[in-house]
Write a structure and sequence with these properties.
globular, Rossmann fold, 2 domains, six-stranded parallel β-sheet, about 45% helix, alpha/beta
């Protein structure tokens, strides 16, 4: 079976589609890319859609990429299936045009809803803008033959008429994250501080001000924290953590260097937001941190509890006291820390590899008799 991974996605910013491609290839599917990155982040795209005066810039950039994609697609010939990468709300329509409904299923990786993401990031309120984003979501879902979401909770909010063609594919972690894992007993230093890392875009979903408040409460404790990234809630997070001098702030780290950097820490922090969306997701960093051999601390939500079980420390969303207590507990109990790191790593190896997470999609694409 030959599959084309199609669209204006950027795997450096959004590794999700790379995981799907790697997983399909690992399951014996011939995978080819037809990709021209748009060069815009999730926030950039949603903001342009929420601010009509910026849509012209998005349309012009999209049109130039589409011309190149169409030319590439013609050279690649007819595939057996097409997977439209993350943030493909518009790309799916080009894919539908290039590959009409005659035996070539179009898969849309609907990792985010434009309307729900704009609401979560406080980019668009109600009214006309929200209705426009909802219409964009609906049009993308209608154009696809198979719709991929990342959690059962996101499956439940797919409009009922599109739900039968939806399938849950967890985010997982690319192979470099699994390869970056180290034996935690090899360099364990019970006398040293607990090394903690967070990386992200400081969106409301991630709840970084909660992390900041927890770090402020841990001033003077044997806990060293590396905070990587920046974004919407960064100033508030830094203010909340100001009392703690054991926090290192990095603007960002190249994607190729991030797995090893995260693996050099004891604990990887997940998300702690309280928005509706925060209660529906299992973020990249949870899968990646576990694959890298870190203990994971994240919010106690239904999807994260279902995926992680007791292989992580789960704390109530929006609760800095609980987060601070969890970090201090691991700093003072290295045996529990090592056990958590081993459990997370084992779970990732068994369930979070690309080959494992794409199994439900493969079952839709490849009939049992094939």
């Amino acid at each position: 079976m030959r599959t084309i991974i199609f669209g204006t996605y950027d795997t450096a910013m959004h590794p999700r589609v790379a995981i799907i491609a790697e997983g399909l290839a690992a399951r014996g599917i011939d995978v080819t890319e037809c990709n021209l990155p748009l060069g815009l982040s999730t926030a950039d795209r949603v903001e342009m859609l929420a601010k009509p005066w910026k849509v012209g810039g998005l349309a012009a950039r999209l049109a130039s990429r589409w011309l190149g994609l169409a030319a590439k697609a013609r050279r690649l010939g007819r595939p057996d299936a097409v997977v439209v990468g993350y943030l493909g709300h518009f790309d799916v329509h080009l894919a539908r045009l290039l590959y009409p409904r005659r035996g070539v299923p179009i898969v849309l990786d609907h990792l985010i809803s434009a309307a729900n993401t704009a609401k979560d990031r406080r980019i668009a309120g109600g009214g006309l803008k929200q209705r426009l984003l909802t219409a964009i979501d609906a049009a993308a879902l209608r154009a696809a033959d198979i719709v991929v979401v990342d959690t059962e909770e996101h499956l439940e909010i797919v409009p009922e008429k599109y739900r039968p063609k939806a399938v849950v594919v967890h985010v997982g972690a690319p192979t470099p994250w699994h390869q970056a894992a180290v034996d935690p007993t090899a360099d364990a230093d019970a006398s040293g501080p607990l090394k903690v890392v967070f990386y992200g875009l400081y969106t409301p979903l991630q709840g970084t001000p909660v992390i900041g408040e927890a770090l402020g409460r841990l001033a003077g404790a044997p806990v060293e924290v590396t905070m990587i990234g920046g974004g919407q809630d960064e100033p508030e997070t830094k203010r909340a953590a100001a009392a703690n001098t054991s926090v290192r702030w990095l603007d960002w780290v190249p994607a190729a260097e991030l797995p090893a950097l995260v693996a050099s820490h004891d604990v990887c922090l997940g998300i702690f937001g309280t928005s509706d969306k925060a209660l529906r997701v299992v973020p990249n960093k949870v899968f990646q941190g576990a694959a890298a051999g870190c203990a994971v601390i994240t919010s106690d939500t239904a999807p994260q509890r279902r995926v992680l079980g007791d292989a992580a420390v789960l704390v109530p969303p929006g609760d800095p006291d609980a987060l601070a207590a969890a970090l201090l507990g691991l700093a003072n109990d290295r045996e529990a820390l090592l056990k958590l790191r081993h459990s997370a790593r084992q779970l990732a190896a068994e369930r979070f590899t690309p080959e494992q997470v794409v199994a439900p999609l493969t079952e839709r694409l490849v009939p049992p008799h094939a």
